[in-house]
Write a structure and sequence with these properties.
The chain contains eight helices and 29 strands. With 461 residues, the protein is an alpha/beta fold. β27 (390-391), α7 and β28 form a beta-alpha-beta unit. α3 packs across α5.
């Protein structure tokens, strides 16, 4: 009986010992300390749990309770808690997760280098800076200039830094500009003293350099003729600009011939859709002409004609006989409109005019004497009017050969002022034949100016 009791006691002791040595096992899957980049996805690896005996046998796996979270959109350290429990035991462990930002910010510029004037560091560069976490950090950018380099530096809130370097290229190949005050073309009566209207000059690097302008002036106001005043200015690197102003010295009724066989091609009523083709023909033969323009056509066409050396005259804005010949004021109101258009396009005030219908027109007889009055008044106001002494009859035929022959058979020694219309395509097509005849027969071609023969008609009203 005693022996049995001993055995029972031993067995009970063994059982109690085995029971008391039961324990909880809780181990992390993965690292205890994890570092993760901001905005990356956090993947929870979990943990291993076991209720184990002294011999290491896992009797069962207790449920793991996990608490805590990781916000990968915010920098910082986060704690994840893992806990298991049994009737008599409880075990808890932790994992530390740190959300960090290791990405460098970006600096953006719109250029690969900086071109600036010599000895100039006062320039602006358009840039921006963006960080994946701090977003727009343009206001944190630091600008520096070292060893001919423009340096941009920026750091985000985590200390990540970026640097961008642009080479500074000191160069100046831009010419200065000269702006003339007053008109580019000035008309002086013989004996009238020339007064310089003035000018200004600016340079992209030096600013105002008006005091550097050199003027060459050969105007002889006592001698009728065409003169050129040259304005020249240079910057420190010898970039040079030259501009000219034309001065015509004339008498009240100037008639200055330039040769004994001269053809002045003149075109009325344009510009039109045919004028560009006409300009191409004139350019082909290097012949200059005169355009008496109206409100028609494009500014670009008039500008091209002027820039290619043709004269731009005024033919009234409306070309409406009943309107322009209604009165002196009506005529000049209309003339001033086309004058303003031409001056705006060319920068030059034209003083060359042709009356609609010519000075000998009879369509103005509804206002008796208006042409006699206007012919005198335009000269009083400094204008010079031109009629013609060679007609093309291009308003009465569409045959370009006839138009050319009408002109050719009327040519003579001296000055030939030819009337054509660039609104008539047949007349435009006739120009090549007229030019070729003229060049082959010893004629020279010229544009009209204030000194040219005027070929006035007999006024009929």
């Amino acid at each position: 009986m005693k022996k049995a009791w001993i055995i029972v006691t031993v067995l009970i002791g063994i059982f109690l010992f085995y029971t008391l040595t039961m324990h909880l096992v809780l181990n992390l899957n993965g690292d205890e300390y994890i570092e993760i980049n901001v905005f990356d996805e956090y993947n929870e690896k979990g943990a291993y749990s076991c209720y184990s005996d002294i011999f290491g046998f896992c009797l069962y796996e207790p449920e793991i309770k996990i608490s805590g979270n990781v916000d990968t959109t915010k920098l910082g350290e986060y704690t994840i808690n893992y806990m298991i429990s049994s009737s008599f035991h409880q075990k808890q462990i932790q994992r530390k997760v740190t959300v960090v930002d290791k990405e460098k910010p970006l600096i953006n510029v719109t250029q690969e280098s900086i071109l600036t004037c010599p000895n100039n560091n006062d320039f602006e560069v358009a840039y921006s800076a963006f960080d994946n976490y701090d977003l727009d950090i343009t206001d944190k950018v630091i600008e520096k200039i070292e060893n001919d380099e423009y340096i941009l530096e920026v750091s985000d809130s985590s200390g990540n830094s970026s640097t961008l370097t642009l080479p500074i290229i000191y160069v100046d190949d831009e010419k200065p500009t000269i702006k003339l005050k007053g008109d580019k073309t000035i008309y002086l009566l013989k004996g009238e003293k020339y007064k310089e209207p003035g000018f200004s000059a600016n340079d992209n690097c030096l600013g105002n350099i008006t005091d550097r302008v050199k003027i060459s002036n050969n105007v002889d106001s006592d001698k009728v003729g065409k003169y050129t005043i040259s304005y020249t200015v240079s910057d420190d690197l010898n970039n040079t600009t030259k501009l000219t102003r034309t001065v015509y010295v004339y008498e009240k009724n100037p008639d200055v011939p330039i040769g004994d066989k001269v053809i002045y091609l003149t075109f009325d009523d344009g510009p039109s859709k045919y004028t560009e083709e006409l300009l191409d023909i004139l350019k082909k033969y290097n012949v200059k002409a005169t355009f008496f323009v109206t409100s028609n056509g494009s500014d670009d066409t008039i500008k091209r004609a002027y820039e290619e050396g043709h004269s731009i005259g005024l033919h009234t804005y409306s070309h409406n006989y009943s309107k322009v010949y209604q009165s002196v004021d009506a005529y000049f109101n209309d003339l001033n409109k086309i004058s303003s258009r031409v001056e705006k396009i060319t920068g030059e005030k034209s003083m060359l005019i042709r009356f609609p219908g010519g000075s000998s027109n009879t369509v103005s007889k509804f206002n008796p004497g208006i042409m006699t009055t206007l012919a005198k008044e335009v000269e009083v106001r400094g204008y010079k009017y031109f009629d013609w002494n060679v007609g093309s009859s291009d308003t009465s035929t569409s045959d370009s050969s006839k138009i050319a022959n009408n002109v050719i058979k009327s040519l003579k020694k001296g000055s030939n002022i030819v009337l054509q219309h660039d609104t008539n395509y047949s007349s435009v097509k006739a120009v090549s034949e007229i030019i070729e005849y003229g060049l082959n027969n010893g004629y020279v071609f010229a544009p009209l100016d204030i000194t040219s023969p005027s070929a006035h008609h007999t006024i009929a009203n």
